[in-house]
Amino acid sequence: MPKVTYELPDGSVHDVEVPCGQSVMDGSVRNNLPGIVAECGGSCSCATCHVFLDEGEFDEPTDEERELLEFAEGARPESRLSCQLILDDSCAGVRVTVPGTNG
């Protein structure tokens, strides 16, 4: 099972095992970690699951994700929507930083 490291706005770090097929957002929400709001429930329509991808290899963001990230507060080149980061067996060492505010 892939492990995701979440660095939260308060500086705390949490390592969470997330089942394959679930997203980085799911791992946060299911473990009650603060900061990833996920208002749309993972349908890539709100940008409240904005994170900075520190480590981990995923497909390039879709055009839809890029457009939403344009409106995310504090977006940077390493910004991603955690609902679009789906974990599989090849995911090792995924690390994300949750911004202080999400969208």
From TrEMBL:
The keyword Cell division does not apply. Keywords: 2Fe-2S, Iron, Iron-sulfur, Metal-binding. It holds the Pfam family Fer2. GO terms for biological process: P450-containing electron transport chain. CDD domains: fer2 (cd00207). InterPro entries: 2Fe-2S_ferredoxin-like_sf, 2Fe-2S_ferredoxin-type, Adrenodoxin-like, Adrenodoxin_Fe-S_BS, Beta-grasp_dom_sf. Its cofactor is [2Fe-2S] cluster. GO terms for molecular function: 2 iron, 2 sulfur cluster binding; electron transfer activity; metal ion binding. It comes from the Bacteria. Belongs to the adrenodoxin/putidaredoxin family. PANTHER family: FERREDOXIN-2, MITOCHONDRIAL (PTHR23426:SF65), FERREDOXIN/ADRENODOXIN (PTHR23426). This is 2Fe-2S iron-sulfur cluster binding domain-containing protein. It comes from Amycolatopsis acidicola.
